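Session log. Operator J.P. requested a structure for one protein chain; no other inputs attached. Running the standard single-chain path with token output.
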Amino acid sequence: MPPNIPTHYAHHDGSSLLIGNRWVERAFSARVGEPFITSSFVNKTSNRDYVRTDRDYARAGSREFCFSIDGNEITGNDFALERIEIHDERDPIEIVAHLQTKELKENSQSSPSSLISLDLHFLIYSDHPVIRKWLVIENRGDQTIHVTDLDWEDLQLLVDSAASAEVWSDYFTRRNKSIIVTMDDCALLVNDTLHHEGFILATEAPGPLKRMNVYGQPGRIAIGLNRDDETIFERVLAPGEKFQTPASFILPFAHPIPQDVIEHEYAHFVEKYLTVCDVAQVPTISLNTWVPFLSHLDSDLVLKQINLAAELGVDAYQIDDGWYDRLGDWNTNDLKFPNGMEEIAEHCHARGMRFGLWMTVAAVDEASGVAREHPEWIARDRNGQPNRHPAPGTITMCLDSSYFDFILDKIDSVINRYGVELLKLDFSSVRNVYEPGRYPGCFATNHTHPSANDSHLRIVERLFDLIRAIKQRHPRCLIDVTYELYGVMDGTDLALIQVADQNWFTNITSPNEVNFRREVYQRGRVTRPWTLNFGGTVLEHPNAKTYGIFSAFAAHGLFWGDLESLDEDLRQHYKRWFAWAKEQRAHSDFYRYYQCSDIFPVPDGVSSRDYRHMIPAARFGTRPLGIHPPAFDPSSQHPGEFWDGVARLDERGEGPIFVFRPGASFSPYFQLRIPWVNRDTHYHVTNATRNTDVGTFTGAALSDQGIELHIAQPLDALVIVLRQVDNMTG
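Structure written below.
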């Protein structure tokens, strides 16, 4: 683009506001004193306007935003533009539309009329086809108001016809005509199969508060907060109080392969602007103690395991559950570790490994000092009884109380005392994922939250405040938030990766590798793969030697296992592959990249779903005992029938490609096209599994014809490595 033409812009001429860049332009009716409403949304690649104004999709649906105040529905049509601010001195450009206060009508159910004001915020970027949006609501009245049923994005948005539109949900792996999703997805893709274009809708709402509606009503999309299920949103605003919604964004595209948009334009934006964790800080090889030891740890066992881990080349060793006396007190269990955890941490550091530890945030032992001394901090259910976690004798404290300061200081003390560099934070806070509907939020009346529904978002906000405070005090410590703590089974999203470094999103482990790869394929493309932590491969399992460890390398090298049970040959095998992974990262950090395009299918496994999807529903107080319906049981034996894989190639087309033959696959051959290379460049391809040369090829040949791969037996895998011919010394 010529230098005199701006790459991104915002212009208000008194009647309309235009914001955009080379890929997208959004226009608003923007006359002072009149409603501020989106009038067009143009995909500039195709020059198609997605805002429908024809008779079938009347403008009545484009409301800009919608929420209720004390039961009164409010939309963008109920407000008038006061003024517009454009901050174009930085990238991204920020635009703020200030809307005039509006007196709400009284009805027989409500208190006297209240006054509110609204600010709509937009960001437009020079280097990404993205427009980002959020809303700020201020109570300017003299009475408390209740905000519910909130959508800060509410538009009529359709490429062309509903007949050719499909919505990709379940982390971009299922196709629907319409969907309303709560808690689970943070991004949905709308694809027009006739015109080969569409848009990605993404929400930055956290965990169980997410809600997205795509074509639940004809042509309408809405992004907001949960109003349907368990952790329902409410914000009680005192006079003068403000509430800022989470953000969302829309990314238009025109491409025949939507998977490529997910893995390029979408992934690049998410990495640059939304991912707090620097991939370079992620250890190449980490070991966690949970399997097979569970909480049965002692100093003799752990010291031996650390010695063996160091010999294998492990970079980080993490002690999971079982090292403390009581949850909440966080003192070392002197019977198990008579010399304290200091001995374990020093032993680990002396062998060049980073030391990791496990803690809970809100869950405490009901016999702990904090529970006995501060019952006023306990999260309560609707009957006034303590909220509980399934672990026997464990209750939940409310983060939206003074307990917040206690646990922040306690975590800070543990990190300082032991030099912790990886911290796994676990167990429930806002909801118990194993007993849906039983312990949502907090009904206590002596905490900061004014109501139980108000507590849902506030508890998650306080969790985020806690993580930020820990990171500010300990910037080198990687913070890992488990799905239990976050409140959605196997859940991760764009809100969490802006705050926590990583998310322990699943405990799927050997022999369910294909199920694990399916979840990495899903979650690792919606977020970024190095932000995912997991149980993954157990090193002594028969599948682990290639099929298992390569499955882990689809995300990054995090493992379970009893290293004493490995024979010498297996130890040397793992030592070789751990060193190989470090060499690959030194050349080009393959953990950063993840490509499947339309070459590799979704792995033929089972993906976990939140237990509230159980059949029959478990929200009526019956604990599901960890059992999914058969279609969503990730621990079921589901061998998989067709090959899958992932390429982890850099911008030059260099790096490894992992390929898997699942247990029920009948064919030992797979023809692999490799489109992620430079067509005019020559590449040397090696089979790192067999340590043999595959050959030298042009990028065009790899992209168009590909190469034939052979895996003789099911439940096995291989990895090939690509290098440019003039870069063979790397």
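Operator note: The radius of gyration is 26 Å.
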